[in-house]
Each structure stands twice: as C-alpha cells, then as structure tokens.
Amino acid sequence: MNRRPRLPRWLYAGGSRRDRLRDPDVVASALRVKPGDIVGDLGPAYGHFTVLLARAVAPDGVVYAIDADQSTLDDLRVAADERNPTTLRTVLVPRDRLEIPEPVDLLFVSATYHHLRDPARYFSAARVFVRPGGRVAILESRREGLLAQWMGTHGGPSGRVRAVMAEAGFLLTATHELVPGHWFGQFQVRPQP
Predict the structure, then answer these.
(1) What secondary structure, in 3-state letters, does 91-106 show?
(2) How many domains does the chain divide into?
C-alpha cells in the first residue's frame, strides 16, 4: 500500500479522513462512555463512531445522531440498521443551532467543527444541552503549519478551537494524541460565578 509520506509538522500537521477512521475503537474508548449515558454525535456521517457509541450506552442509554442533512441521517439509519443498535436515534437540526430532545452527557463532534459558521455562538447556545458534569469532545484535523492553507480545506488550528470554546463558556479538561494529524480535546461547561 503506497502512503503519502508524512511532512514535517511545522510544514503541515493536518490529518486525513483515513487517519481519523483508522481505529475508531481507540477514539470511542477515550470518550469513556458507559451504559445509560446520553450521547449526541454531531455530524455522524456514516456512523463510524455513532454505532460504537450506541453499543457502549446500551441497554438503557441513547445516542442521538445529529445532522442538518436528512439524506445523511437516512444513509446512517440504513447502515446502522444492519448492525441493529437499539439505542440510536436520528435528529434533524438547523445548521445554525443545536436542538435535541434532552441534555447529553457527551456531545461528540468529529470532523464537523469546521463546518459551523459561528462556532462560538453555536456552542454558547448549546451549553443548555450539556448535562451538569457533561462534556463536549472535538476531534478535528489540525490544519496547522506553513502549508496548511493549501493542503486541506477541512479542519482548523487547535489554538483557535480552544479559544472559541473558551469564549463559548467551556473549559478544556483533556487532550489526546490518538489520531495522526488530528487534535482531540474534551471540554466541560465553565461553572458560572
């Protein structure tokens, strides 16, 4: 298998979709989801992580696959039905705000953050959908280095994600170096004074 050689990180530190999906079990394990948890998967695509999370919360939890595109949710449902997760629910949301049936223990955002037009406003308003003690986990291609603006359109600098989430009222609680070329951080709602 021919793989593109890795560039030095100072030139380009971004990752690909293949990197992100190479070992979804490692990512799911870092999320520390347990039976009975309520999870939102924002931008689930074909459900590489969604189905793993749905199994992890069984038998009494729920995973909401959240997307602004009905065809994406339909495709996910078809793919997921073959694996029979009973804890999976699909939720169609507007592009500019989160609307889900109940607050979650974890809001997982994989390769979706860069699609949000105003992420500070989005996540500021989304705080009401994160339970006390709950978390937001963001897995995003780094898109950092001198060549970042030409190498890929998906992703963003990790420093920018951290700054925006702080502005939205979240505290960074953990980072993980699990996926090549990707930044993986977890946040909690900052307590109000």
Answers:
(1) EECCCCCCCCCCCEEE
(2) 1
Q: Is residue 82 part of a domain?
A: yes
How many Cα atoms occupy the beta-carbon half-sphere of 75 within 13 Å?
11
State the DSSP code for 115.
G
167-190 b/e with 16+ CB inside 10 Å = b?
A: ebbbeeeeebeebebbbbbbbbbe
3-state secondary structure of 63: strand
- Evaluate if pTM is beyond 0.90: no
Cβ neighbours around 118 below 10 Å, total: 12
Is residue 150 situated within a structural domain?
Answer: yes
Angle between helices 119-126 and 158-167 (to 10 degrees): 50
Low-confidence ranges of the chain (pLDDT < 70): 1-23, 142-157, 179-180, 193
Range of 184's domain? 17-189
Domain assignment present for residue 5? The answer is no
Segment 64-102, tens digit of pLDDT: 999 999 999 999 888 887 777 789 999 999 999 999 999
Asked whether residue 8 is assigned to any structural domain, the reply reads: no
Q: 188 near 105, Cβ under 8 Å? A: no
> Can you say whether residue 81 is alpha, beta or left, with left for phi > 0 and alpha for psi between -120 and 50 degrees?
alpha
Instruction: Output the domain CATH number for residue 89.
Output: 3.40.50.150
